[in-house]
Amino acid sequence: MRYAPSDLPVFTLTTGPVDAYPAVLRGLAATVLYDYDPAFQATYQRVTEKLARVVKSETMPVLLQGEPVLGLEAAAVSLIGRDDVVLNLVSGVYSKGFAPWAARSGAEIVELAVPYNEVIDPAAVARALAARPDVTVVALCHHDTPSGTINPVAEIGAVVKAHGALFLVDAVSSFGGMKVDAESAAIDLLVTGPNKCLGCPPGLTILGVSNRAWAKMKANPQAPRASILSILDWEDAWRADKPFPFTPSVAEINGLEAAIDLYLAEGPEKVWARHALTAKACRAGLKAMGLPIWPADESFASPTATAVRTPKGIDEAVLRAEVRARYGVVLSSGRGETLGKLTRIGHMGPTAQPLYAVVALTALSGALGALGHKVDVGAGVAAALAVIDAG
Amino acid sequence: MRYAPSDLPVFTLTTGPVDAYPAVLRGLAATVLYDYDPAFQATYQRVTEKLARVVKSETMPVLLQGEPVLGLEAAAVSLIGRDDVVLNLVSGVYSKGFAPWAARSGAEIVELAVPYNEVIDPAAVARALAARPDVTVVALCHHDTPSGTINPVAEIGAVVKAHGALFLVDAVSSFGGMKVDAESAAIDLLVTGPNKCLGCPPGLTILGVSNRAWAKMKANPQAPRASILSILDWEDAWRADKPFPFTPSVAEINGLEAAIDLYLAEGPEKVWARHALTAKACRAGLKAMGLPIWPADESFASPTATAVRTPKGIDEAVLRAEVRARYGVVLSSGRGETLGKLTRIGHMGPTAQPLYAVVALTALSGALGALGHKVDVGAGVAAALAVIDAG
Amino acid sequence: MRYAPSDLPVFTLTTGPVDAYPAVLRGLAATVLYDYDPAFQATYQRVTEKLARVVKSETMPVLLQGEPVLGLEAAAVSLIGRDDVVLNLVSGVYSKGFAPWAARSGAEIVELAVPYNEVIDPAAVARALAARPDVTVVALCHHDTPSGTINPVAEIGAVVKAHGALFLVDAVSSFGGMKVDAESAAIDLLVTGPNKCLGCPPGLTILGVSNRAWAKMKANPQAPRASILSILDWEDAWRADKPFPFTPSVAEINGLEAAIDLYLAEGPEKVWARHALTAKACRAGLKAMGLPIWPADESFASPTATAVRTPKGIDEAVLRAEVRARYGVVLSSGRGETLGKLTRIGHMGPTAQPLYAVVALTALSGALGALGHKVDVGAGVAAALAVIDAG
Amino acid sequence: MRYAPSDLPVFTLTTGPVDAYPAVLRGLAATVLYDYDPAFQATYQRVTEKLARVVKSETMPVLLQGEPVLGLEAAAVSLIGRDDVVLNLVSGVYSKGFAPWAARSGAEIVELAVPYNEVIDPAAVARALAARPDVTVVALCHHDTPSGTINPVAEIGAVVKAHGALFLVDAVSSFGGMKVDAESAAIDLLVTGPNKCLGCPPGLTILGVSNRAWAKMKANPQAPRASILSILDWEDAWRADKPFPFTPSVAEINGLEAAIDLYLAEGPEKVWARHALTAKACRAGLKAMGLPIWPADESFASPTATAVRTPKGIDEAVLRAEVRARYGVVLSSGRGETLGKLTRIGHMGPTAQPLYAVVALTALSGALGALGHKVDVGAGVAAALAVIDAG
């Protein structure tokens, strides 16, 4: 039995786009209202207020009308001017990829890099800032997804705050699946989206902005205005009595409301716990099958995605294709430097439930076996189950 | 009986966001696939190929992941470089508003303007081009929605073609509701979206690009790359075997497929006919009620939106609020210069059915009466019905 | 412009199946749970409890797993045994049609009939009961839909109660659109469903049962058990800790929950008011167009459906076909004796909004005109609007 | 980590109601049309014609408006009159439970029974018919779901045909998941529904009727007419130009069309293969974990549900509750005589995909371990995977 490429997959265990919650799908199907209809304006404000409870930024969250790649570019070009010095903390492909946007204004970019299976040491950040007291902005990717590693955002945030720089954080693929918010990590510009751990389709950016970040953007003559890249234009758009700069993505907003309602009803801590347990079970199973994870240390392996190293002699693309063809399971590849070196199993939103780790382990083991790399699926599942049962 | 602002409206007769087709809403609720899943990649190619049948551009249509305001900005900054001279044809708020984007590169902008209740005369375009043979790009807004006027795009296109300039057209709120395509109007860069006459929610841009336009953008060093504003990055993304520059809006693509399927199944000519008839009935009713339309001549009144002048002494915002509170009907205001001077009745997608004109006429008449401006609703509806029955 | 029979209609203004609320459609699309899953059992109890607030029966409402024709047959054969004498109050096709079910057990049926455009006089019921003191069950159809007439259920209920008989009421097409409940009308067995004024699709029956009715059914050896027709089997099924006699219609239950949530959120009185106003506007418009309603007196014309007499010389089926072909509007015919004599305009659920009366009036007028019976649509709409504005 | 009873389950692996296909859920959410709208009448005919391709009865399939328990009762009381002699083939709780319906008319019931973990031997049927040449109807439950056993329907059908009796078959939980149709098994009255292997919610019955069965029902004075239990009333209802006896369940019909479209698009053989492989993998895993299946011989174990014996000392209800609380997995219990003795894992519709067997095995193993009955989950999953990979 083989699944054809045109067959719908059975399990989408990816790092995004992720399988959406059924309630979110129904939310997307809600009646489309005119954006200036008072019922929609009230919806928009209500959704923002619900988000404020979890983003915990000093000011009301901002929604941008495109998936978080828009948010990241907009954050870079809005916050950073030609007179800035940016310390870019590089622990993977996504943090490295932020640099060109940060540099677009003409700012100087200072890089603090670690190997892509390591994470940033807060002490090293402190040293880098001591060496360059003129750094005005520090940029971090919390979960460098192509590596499946989690940087110590709160500790780094404390260092950045002590230094006085602005802290810009990409929390796209961690937010909603683990504890990360503007308050606890002293983040000035938090960029995330509903399309990962909140279980929505891609299409929106969520921003958490501090008062200092607003002031900096407003003072930045290079910050986009009257542009899709503008954050400034949207500052007051959350208020039901204020205009939108342009038409918001009404259906995505409706889907986001369903997602945030689910998140608040279940309780963030409970949601994080099932993400963490799913990932932990997954790692235990991989270990038992002799498949090392990509992160150099399990202590900073992501709770929302598990990156497993591709065994020697296996073509990673062939492996994923076999996983899909044989079992209907979709996994994610690496990106850039990690492409071909690892496979990623997403634990985000609706699939962040421990038994999905068993699904992934079984499928991975079967496909590896089919490609000549035999692993002990029984040991893997047993180890995963032991973790789940202890969870 | 009054509808509260928080009550869902009964009829959304707006110029966008518009009421979506029920089949589109169900399309939005389809299972969210991973963007690199072969089933989704095949979907993306299939949707593009269906669009190609109606966009009729020389090359495959391009989808951008944001509502058409993104497409318009992207088109301007991708196509237009600092050495260009742009003839911007201004017949309303939206065409006027295009200038700052066109000028961002440093290009010179030449304006040919008419009053906002008139349309551009192709002969005037010819004269303007004769006066400025160095014009390299001509920009037109086909349906300047805030005025409800339709410019003679095909005739202007012929003039532009003869001149040799590139023709950039905003067909956002006309495409899908009347005949307009890249081939018949010689358009080099057609910008539209599914969120008006195709009956989708806002969230995507559709571009039709000529070979010359691609060449121009590729040769333009200022054209965005690695940006949300890049068109270039998406050139090959429609092919199932090519990567996406970043994550597409999966759910919106699914909704768009439902819309294009409906459109092709009904048949474009049939769809256009019901848009035209609805608008014509609406205009006849307004006339019979003594309410002049905004366009100076009915011959260029839009088939997808009817702009009616606000009677003396009536506050337009109060009028729309009354229409909603009294009847649950949502209409659109003017924008910019036309704000407060007219009300717009959308005939787009699912509400482009003649009886909706009667709904709008009745609601408008009732609200006007309540505000002290009595009109003869009976005459209005009778006139509209006569048009429908002759349609 | 003509709508083909295969085209989806634009407006469904029928007496059932009716256009469903969008929120109900999304409810139907909710994840299907196993009926014995505790989450579904809790749902079933919760839905029943919400219904109890509006059915107001002495005991918890019972849901049967089929549209109300099942409920009516089940009610008849469960409540009525061979020793009963049933007074069947006949004011139309549906009340007349109840007799065969009532007689199935062998019970004697006594009929009190009025012309099908009249309603039952409570005093006549009192006389009939005085003449036949052995009557044990009185059956009434509250809204005899094929006539569009509303019987005085509360007054008749008082008479029946004084007599001591059991009162069985078909409130299928009135419940949810006007005031009618078990308590206020002293109903022992109220039969209704969500597929009319609650705006659900057909598929469920809702029963309100008094203690006396339960006792009577339990004592009736002929009452069905272990059958789709059994009411007794479902007595305790609403309780989350009790088994279902057989599998309930899970999706319909989910849809019903959405409907009852809408109903309670809007407030029954407000819902009834918009049904009443829509019907009143419709009647005023018909009158102004010279089209008499079927009920002999407007005082008992239904707020949930307006029956208009077919003008002389018009084939009623042709008329409805013309209404659909010309305007995309679907209306209902008469049934049985009223078939061919009247057309019914439904005002149920989402289309019980006053402007839909204008839609119906316009479509009816246009089709009549096309068939040679000219009416003054302007006068009709003006009259309807005057009612709406005074409402 | 525990799932609360009110939490939505993660995996519904039951024997019905089953998890529905997402496309079916969207089908249920389609616009509700008036049953006499020509567009709906065409839909109803089209759905019936699609069903005809897979039911393969001599005449067009009949839809009844209630889940198959209605169909079974209706079949019994329509086909069987007081002069009939019925051979009821009893291999489980459901076949045994058919007898009271079969006997309602006063017919004589002859029983051929086997233990509930065995299946009917066609030779025994032949002997029973030889002993009672007056048998006029033979009744079989193809898949006696509470036992998870599949009777040899085609072989028995041949015996019944040779005898000349009518063959009434309950194929509710096998149809759509394995080969069974009226033609290949010589079935005169096939009763099934969309709510098992076709992946719909419960709410409809599908009947396949032979010419002889129609003749028999028409000649039966006891066959219900003007009743929810009538089959006769619905004979011509599939035709777009014929009336419905009463309102059909519009939304369920829409859902069924989505299901039959999926079934035909995938191809019945391919659908059956994945049901069979899932069940086979499940059985292999159970065996490897030392958990015997309920059927006495694997050769007649169902491909659509696997019944596993409850280990000594384990309370089956506690076991299922633990499976749900610990892993969010919902399984089915036994029924009647098998209640408490076995647990059933459904492989129906969307969950008839091999990896769901792994999910079930893991959850069962973990819950058993938690209740003190340790099994080797690794061996179970490895055995299941070996079967899948060989499949």
Automatic annotation (TrEMBL), chains A, B, C, D:
Binding residue positions for substrate: 344
Residue positions where N6-(pyridoxal phosphate)lysine is found in the record: 196
A GO MF label: alanine-glyoxylate transaminase activity
Presence of keyword ATP-binding: no
Residue span, Aminotransferase class V domain: 100-335
Gene3D superfamilies: Aspartate Aminotransferase, domain 1, Type I PLP-dependent aspartate aminotransferase-like (Major domain)
EC numbers for this chain: 2.6.1.30
Keyword field contains ATP-binding: no
Protein name: Pyridoxamine--pyruvate transaminase
Cofactor: pyridoxal 5'-phosphate
Xref: PANTHER family: ALANINE--GLYOXYLATE AMINOTRANSFERASE 1, AMINOTRANSFERASE CLASS V
Gene Ontology biological process terms, A to Z: glycine biosynthetic process, by transamination of glyoxylate
Family, per entry: Belongs to the class-V pyridoxal-phosphate-dependent aminotransferase family.
Keyword field: Aminotransferase, Pyridoxal phosphate, Pyruvate, Transferase
Annotated TM spans: none
Organism: Ancylobacter tetraedralis
Pfam families named in the record: Aminotran_5
